[in-house]
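User: Here's a structure from my thesis project, written as structure tokens. My advisor, Dr. K., wants to see whether a designed sequence matches the one we expressed. Can you design one independently, without my sequence as a hint?
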């Protein structure tokens, strides 16, 4: 439960129809197993104590009494802190209700009825059950006063891990306005559904889409537990299609027709972060609700679903290709609109032979092709200086020529030496002035050439560089349209590879693959033995770590300790813990200290959920300090 994680168990128990003693024994054993495996919320199917298919046996007093006694026996055996949802028929004022018993620390703490009673196709529940009501009343359950009604929220009060849970039953989720909508806007971050959904051709996929969509619309976690083998097969077959979803993503799903326990960990912090971000998520507090407080023991939840190392890049190859194609289209369409809007038929791009300028050029080529403009209108400028190596120079030249763009080479060494002389800079002093002078000279050249040809300078810097401030203020920091500003470095690499893999030109593919194989470097310091002497990741840290930190910090607002814990898991065997600690501190220091560069960024397209544009996603003061975040890591 630490760091906002909580383990869930969705259970399809073996059962015998109408044998409440057998069923309760099976349920008790399943609870023990789930608790042993760390589950804090355990959800069983609808009417699991009796079986959903008991039919007119629901009208028998013996079954109703036996079901209530079974629930009491289950509660008495459940002394741990897990919150348990059990389905059974409950009689109140001469009516029978399809009900979820909520059990915690040996007590039934709430009874939640099914609101929507299906009476169509293969369902005839109205023959036995009355529709539940929303506003709770207090009923007697074996000598204890228990709230009974749909509008019940179970709230964990343990600091700092407060969260709220609500329940609905089967058909409630299938109606146009499910009870879960009201529960969610009243604060429920986790919705559980006790279900008995029979199997029909195509129904499994429909259920999956429905549960996924519900969790997305409600910005919540959603746990679905359905009846399975053991139910009567007189007319229907039940498959136990259990699912655990979080904000639109199915994080865990059981195999069909296999009874058992499905586990998954949900992240309540992540849900809250999303709700805070969405000002259209309408929170309210209805007076009709009864709120039952509980407390969980504070323990660390073992995670079975370890986050991938590249949160910006899908692990599935097919999805990765789709993502790359989509991002590349967003970039090129953004530039296309800008060029068409200002009537420009030329674009100026500084080409270094590195990844970022390569992607910017490929995007520009696509925009020009879409506009049916001559690629010779793309003015590609390579500007070798003190740090340029033969490898990057040759790749830059060959890339430009292979793409049939206009090529111009301007050696800036003499200009920089003259500038050093003007300002009194020692050419042998390889300090920040030595480096930044080259970046600013290159930008000045690009801007002036753009003025000469009535074009625009296409920026090459990426999202990761902007996050770290690894860019020269008023140098490569500036352009007239920054096509890579929303693309993190780890995704830049995959975009270039995507383009290489889909290219019909062997020559272009070979160039792109060699660029991919070249170490990332600004090439502002002289090479050693003809090779790059200044590798970016040696100076600011591995981009795969920084992109990971950036994603979880900006996308969900996770605190440093949580990001640290996740990183330990994701990068186990790749980076040592002390290495992760080192660069995480560097990330926070740089992210805060370099905001002034992001406060005046040029226009550029947002391509994903993380952006640092001062006009949209990141309204951050340039003089904010990182002390609070760094203190967490001490």
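Assistant: Designed independently from the structure alone:
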């Amino acid at each position: 439960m630490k760091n906002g994680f909580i383990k869930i168990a969705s259970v399809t128990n073996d059962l015998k129809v109408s044998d409440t003693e057998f069923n309760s024994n099976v349920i008790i054993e399943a609870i023990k197993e789930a608790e042993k495996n760390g589950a804090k919320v355990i959800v069983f199917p609808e009417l699991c104590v009796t079986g959903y298919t008991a039919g007119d046996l629901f009208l028998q007093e013996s079954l109703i009494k036996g079901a209530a006694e079974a629930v009491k026996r289950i509660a008495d055996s459940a002394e741990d802190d897990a919150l348990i949802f059990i389905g059974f028929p409950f009689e109140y004022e001469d009516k029978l209700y399809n009900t979820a018993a909520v059990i915690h620390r040996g007590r039934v703490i709430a009874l939640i009825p099914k609101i929507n009673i299906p009476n169509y196709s293969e369902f005839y529940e109205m023959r036995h059950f009355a529709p539940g009501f929303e506003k709770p009343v207090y009923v007697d359950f074996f000598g204890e006063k228990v709230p009974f009604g749909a509008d019940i929220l179970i709230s964990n009060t343990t600091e700092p891990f407060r969260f709220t849970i609500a329940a609905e039953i089967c058909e409630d989720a299938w109606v146009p306005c499910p009870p879960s909508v009201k529960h969610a806007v009243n604060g429920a971050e986790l919705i559980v559904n006790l279900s008995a959904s029979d199997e029909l051709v195509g129904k499994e996929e429909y259920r999956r889409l429905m549960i996924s969509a519900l969790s997305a619309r409600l910005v919540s976690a959603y746990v679905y537990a359905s009846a399975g083998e053991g139910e009567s097969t007189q007319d229907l077959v039940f498959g136990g299609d259990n699912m655990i979803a979080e904000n639109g993503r199915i994080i865990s799903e059981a195999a069909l027709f296999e009874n058992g326990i499905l586990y998954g960990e949900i992240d309540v912090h992540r849900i809250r972060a999303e709700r805070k971000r969405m000002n259209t998520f309408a929170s309210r507090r209805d007076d009709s609700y009864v709120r039952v407080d509980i407390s969980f023991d504070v323990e660390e939840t073992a995670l079975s679903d370890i986050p991938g190392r590249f949160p910006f890049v899908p692990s599935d190859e097919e999805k990765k290709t789709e993502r790359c194609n989509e991002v590349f289209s967003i970039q090129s369409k953004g530039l296309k609109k800008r060029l068409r809007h200002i009537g420009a038929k030329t674009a100026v791009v500084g080409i270094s032979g590195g990844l970022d300028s390569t992607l910017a050029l490929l995007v520009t080529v696509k925009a020009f092709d879409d506009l049916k403009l001559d690629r010779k209108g793309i003015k590609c400028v390579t500007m070798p200086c003190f740090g340029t190596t033969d490898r990057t120079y040759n790749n830059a030249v060959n890339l430009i020529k292979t793409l049939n763009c206009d090529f111009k080479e301007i050696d800036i060494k003499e200009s920089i030496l003259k500038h050093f002389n003007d300002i009194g800079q020692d050419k042998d002093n390889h300090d920040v002035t030595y480096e930044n002078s080259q970046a600013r000279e290159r930008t000045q050249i690009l801007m002036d050439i753009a003025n000469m040809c009535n074009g625009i300078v296409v920026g090459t810097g990426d999202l990761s560089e902007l996050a770290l401030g690894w860019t020269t203020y008023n140098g490569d920091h500036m352009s007239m349209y920054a096509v890579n500003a929303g693309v993190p470095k780890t995704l830049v690499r995959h975009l270039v590879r995507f383009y290489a893999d889909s290219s019909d030109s062997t020559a272009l593919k070979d160039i792109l693959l060699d660029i991919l194989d070249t170490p990332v470097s600004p090439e502002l310091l002289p090479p050693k033995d003809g090779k790059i002497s200044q590798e970016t990741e040696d100076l600011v840290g591995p981009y795969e770590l920084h992109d990971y930190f950036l994603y979880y910090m900006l996308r969900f607002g996770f605190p440093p300790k949580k990001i640290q814990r996740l990183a330990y898991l994701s990068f186990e065997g790749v980076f040592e813990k002390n290495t992760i600690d080192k660069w995480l501190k560097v990330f926070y220091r740089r992210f805060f200290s370099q905001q002034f560069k992001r406060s005046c960024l040029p226009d550029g397209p947002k391509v994903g959920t993380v952006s640092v544009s001062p006009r949209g996603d990141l309204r951050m003061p340039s003089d904010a300090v990182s002390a609070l975040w760094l203190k967490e890591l001490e």
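When you compare it with your expressed construct, this may help: The domain at 317-537 is CATH 3.40.50.620 (Rossmann fold).
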